[in-house]
Amino acid sequence: MEPVHGEIATSQKLSDTLVQVCVGEVVVGFVESAGPVFVALHGVRYDVAVEVAQSLVFDVAAAALLSHARVVDHLTAELAKPAAVEPAASSHRAAS
């Protein structure tokens, strides 16, 4: 597999039809074979993973999963940043 954020992406066969995909030590998802189709599932647990792609080629399904994981990681990081707060317009009243 390919490097993601400097980490090596690896796969581990869990059964005849299911492969777990990790980046470093973190599970990013699974690729499941359903007949001739490979289904890419994003999520750390198989039972709640969400389908993100299908392909007739394992490597294409795995690449789609890694690409999806990169996008989700980027969006999560962006959403975690504190919101920029713009200074409120000054509304001074003259003292009487």
What does this structure look like?
The structure is a single chain. The protein has one domain. 24% of the residues lie in helices and 38% in strands. The chain contains 1 helix and 6 strands, in the order ββββββα. It has a 6-stranded antiparallel sheet, with helices on one face. It is elongated.
Features of this protein?
24% helix, 96 residues, elongated, 1 helix, alpha+beta, single chain, six-stranded antiparallel beta sheet
In short:
The chain is α+β, with helices and mostly antiparallel strands and 96 residues long. It has one helix at 58-80; strands at 3-4, 7-13, 18-23, 26-34, 37-42, 50-55.
Count of structural domains: 1
Estimated structural class: alpha+beta
What is the makeup of the main sheet?
6 strands, antiparallel
Topology, number of strands:
6
